[in-house]
Design brief:
Blueprint (H helix, E strand, L loop, with lengths): L1 E7 L3 E6 L11 E6 L2 E11 L2 E11 L2 E4 L10 E4 L2 H8 L6 E7 L5 E6 H5 L3 E4 L6 H12 L12 E5 L5 H4 L11 E5 L18 H7 L6 H16 L4 H19 L5 H14 L10 E3 L4 E3 L15 H9 L19 H14 L6 H18 L15 H9 E2 L3 E2 L2 E5 L5 H21 L8 E6 L10 H4 L4 H8 L5 E7 L7 H5 L3 E4 L5 H10 L5 H8 L5 E6 L6 E4 L14 H5 L6
Parallel strand pairs: 10-19, 10-20, 11-17, 11-18, 12-17, 18-19
Antiparallel strand pairs: 1-2, 2-5, 3-4, 3-7, 4-5, 5-6, 8-9, 13-14, 15-16, 20-21, 21-22
Helix pairs in contact: 5-6, 5-13, 6-10, 7-8, 10-11
Length: about 575
């Protein structure tokens, strides 16, 4: 088949071929035998009776090593790769490998990958709509759970998607093995069980910043103050009541002695007492004077001199509640609380920070207040109605447990019936909780977790987190997660919309057919070690076929994914079946 070598350049050799050789040899792997050297190459281009063969690496004592030190001589013999060499390239069948797919170039020869090299690294699945991307992802997971001798009983795969397309593929996974279980959480308005829920007390300042759409750095201090207050107020003991009175009284005093007209002072004090009030401090409380009592709101009537008629009475009553001697404990301690209690704490945080006297800060604080109130009075509030106090470990355990004695290996979050912005916030919060949990384990990496993001471009973006929080949770997981066993799988048809930092940290790539020029250019620039040849290969791929490369592969290879069984419900709607009816004149 292959004749003499006519030229050797920096990256490839030109080789004569027989005239009756078909175009089927394109992308075929060949070996240059030159004395004791065996150099692997790939047929990249056919020009009449010659082919250009790119150098990929060398075989030493049956093992393949990427890259070459010396090129073959013109006298080297060229032949097609044999079965032993092919087996070395596509992975041996052993306990630590799984089937990725089949090689269409070698009569559907099974392509094996090392489980650690694939599942211990961040991965990216790119492909146009209709390229077989979702089917491919499904098949990869199904292959993992279909291993004959070992079962991934302790796996933890968290899928986040805006549709339930994976439900059909995984809901009966225990039919493969009775030890497997699948669990689905929903955000849809008609869901009655397994509703997505987050314990408020496990969320930190950064989590609330995402949920409340923080836009200014100053808002973080308000959230931090809110959490310290809700922790104190939720105890509902005598000390917390005194603390509330102290905060209200201090806020009123600061306004009362501000350099403003009486009408403005009254309006601000009324605002304080409308938002924050206790039994002792509210607009309707009866304030005792000498021989009489007066309703607190009436004390702020303004006389003809522009002064409050009961200024002395107000001052004496308020100062009774100011307690500057007590050292109030503002350390945040996780404790059960509700959205209603969080709203109260936020209102107190706004007055305790003195924001009423700063228009810009007050406007930013009010934005938090409006957002929280909107959530608390909408259907989204049910996502935070956790019915009992749980620790972080208990929360993660609740997520994966099915009943009292079984665990789920695949946990599917279907984020439908909510807007994209809120969905992104939820995914970020869950990812941050999983990251904190993974870091907290005494035995580092003892519970590997995969976060699989379908439509990843909806979540993994360069957004305001970098400016406000100083980091993006997905970028942090991409950089540090693997050390703690937390791994990202990104599935998208729009790689250009993904964070460049996250893409740069991916070690494995399965690229299905992509045709958009900007996406191709982005992949060429951002994906580590990708070659122009790989880019060209994926342009002509059939649906369900991808180019796979990275840590899990010794060389980039075209992989035909087997049909997912059962398949995800990701196919296009059948217009013909829905539109057409039988009709006769």
């Amino acid at each position: 088949m292959f004749g003499n070598i006519t030229a050797v350049s920096k990256n490839f050799a030109t080789v004569m071929i027989a005239s009756n050789v078909s175009d089927d040899i394109l992308n075929l792997n060949v070996v240059f035998e030159d004395n004791n050297k065996k150099i692997l190459g790939e047929v990249e281009e056919i020009n009449g009776n010659t082919v250009n063969i790119t150098f990929l690496g060398e075989f030493h004592e049956g093992k393949f090593f990427s890259g070459i030190i010396r090129k073959p001589s013109l006298s080297a013999k060229v032949r097609v790769i044999n079965n032993d060499e092919l087996g070395e390239l596509v992975g041996a069948k052993d306990d630590k490998t799984m089937t990725l797919g089949l090689s269409p170039l070698y009569n559907d020869y099974p392509i094996k990958v090392d489980i650690d090299k694939m599942w211990s690294n961040h991965s990216a699945f790119f492909g146009n709509t209709g390229s077989g991307k979702t089917y491919g992802v499904t098949r990869v997971v199904q292959n993992l759970f279909s291993m004959p001798d070992k079962i991934p009983f302790n796996s933890n795969i968290f899928i986040f998607n805006n549709t339930d397309e994976y439900d059909n593929a995984f809901k009966n996974i225990n039919s493969i093995n009775v030890n497997y279980n699948y669990k689905i959480y929903r955000t849809s308005s008609d869901a009655t069980e397994n509703i997505v829920k987050l314990p408020l007390w496990l969320l930190n300042v950064d989590d609330y910043a995402n949920i409340l759409d923080v836009t200014a750095y100053s808002q973080l201090s308000v959230i931090e103050k809110t959490l310290s207050l809700v922790s104190a107020f939720a105890r509902e003991d005598e000390e917390s009541k005194k603390y509330k009175n102290h905060l209200i009284a201090k806020a009123i005093v600061s306004v009362l002695y501000s350099n403003q007209v009486s009408a403005r002072i009254r309006d601000q004090i009324f605002t304080i007492l409308e938002d924050c009030h206790t039994e002792e401090l509210n607009l309707d409380v009866e304030v005792p004077g000498v021989g009489y009592t007066r309703e607190f709101r009436k004390c702020f009537d303004i006389d003809s001199q522009g002064q409050f008629v009961e200024r002395i009475l107000i001052t004496e009553y308020i100062k009774k509640f100011v307690d500057n001697e007590t050292k109030w404990n503002e350390d945040y301690v996780p404790i059960f609380y509700t959205l209603d209690q969080l709203e109260v704490a936020l209102n107190f945080a706004l007055i305790s920070e003195g924001l009423l006297l700063n228009e810009k800060s007050y406007a930013e604080g009010t934005a938090l207040k409006v957002k929280l109130h909107t959530i608390n009075n909408s259907t989204n509030s049910r996502f935070f109605n956790y019915d009992k106090f749980v620790t972080m470990n208990e929360f993660i355990t609740d997520l994966i447990m099915v009943g009292n004695d079984k665990r789920a290996q695949i946990i599917n979050f279907v984020l439908d019936d909510i807007d994209d912005r809120f969905a992104k916030s939820l995914v970020k919060v869950y990812s941050r909780l999983l990251f904190r949990f993974s870091k907290s384990l005494d035995d580092r990496g003892s519970m590997p977790i995969h976060i699989m993001l379908e439509e990843a471009h909806r979540y993994v973006q360069r957004d305001t987190d970098l400016d406000i929080l100083g980091y993006n949770i997905f970028e942090r997981i991409a950089k540090e997660g693997r050390k703690f066993g937390l791994v990202l799988d990104l599935i998208t048809q729009r790689p250009t919309e993904l964070s460049e930092t996250v893409i740069s940290q991916c070690s494995n790539f399965l690229i299905f057919k992509i045709t958009h020029p900007s996406d191709l250019e982005y992949i060429r620039k951002m994906v580590p070690n990708i070659s122009a040849d790989v880019i060209e290969k994926q342009k002509s791929l059939q649906a369900g076929t991808c180019v796979a490369f990275g840590n899990m592969m010794k060389i980039p290879m075209i992989v035909k994914m087997q049909i997912a069984d059962p398949p995800p419900t990701s196919a296009n709607a059948s217009v013909y079946n829905k539109w057409m009816i039988e009709w006769k004149k």
